[in-house]
Amino acid sequence: MADFGMLGNSAQLHDRDRGAGFNSGGGSSTAMTTTMGRESRAQEAIRMKDEQLKVLTDQNSQLLASLDAMEEEANRIQTDKLSIDEENRRLKDQNFELRNKARAAETAAKKAVAEMADKDSQLKIMTDQNSELLRLLEQEEALLIFLSLKLLFAGFASCQRLTRHYSATRTSSWW
Fold it and tell me: What is the spatial distance between Cα 2 and Cα 64, in angstroms, rounded to a whole number?
């Protein structure tokens, strides 16, 4: 009879004690001893139940404290997760903006490279044209100088002829 807390066991003890009192034939002193034994066992059972209740209450308090701590930790983790999610969203938005800016800059750079290549091509064409115009101008200048000299020599020759002719007519008319 190790467990006094079970009702069935305590009922068995009560029956046994009652039977022992009738069998011994002792009468009222046995009944009193039996009653006192029952009371002390009942008090012992109550004391053990109180101790068990105290242990369970302490365990319950510890479990509730653990549960509160876990809830606080879960709330903190949820708050951290929300912060991280917000930071992640902000970084994604910033990344999207930067990618758009990078695409725009890349497009502008390609356009600038194409324009520069076009301007280089135009500059080369203009340089070639200017070189050709300069060559033609130098040829024209050389031709102009040649023709001017030719005219000058022709004029000089004509002047000499006129001078000779004039001189010849003057001397012939004078004599």
Answer: 32
Euclidean distance between CA atoms 101 and 109, whole angstroms: 12
Q: Tell me the Cα Rg of the chain.
A: 66
CA 61 remoteness from chain centre: 45
Beta carbons within 10 angstroms of residue 70's beta carbon: 10
Cα–Cα distance, 16 to 103 (Å, whole number): 97
Give the separation between CA 10 and CA 48, rounded to whole angstroms: 14
**What is the residue-level pLDDT of the chain in tens, covering all 175 positions?**
444 444 444 444 444 444 444 444 455 677 777 788 888 888 999 999 999 999 999 999 999 999 999 999 999 999 999 999 999 999 999 999 999 999 999 999 999 999 999 999 999 999 999 999 999 999 999 999 888 888 888 877 777 777 777 777 766 655 5
**Residue 110 CB partners (closer than 8 Å, separation 6+):** none
Residues whose CB falls within 8 Å of the CB of residue 34, separated by 6 or more in sequence, listed in order: 17, 18, 20, 21
Which is nearest to 147 in space by CA: 139, 160, 133, 136? 139
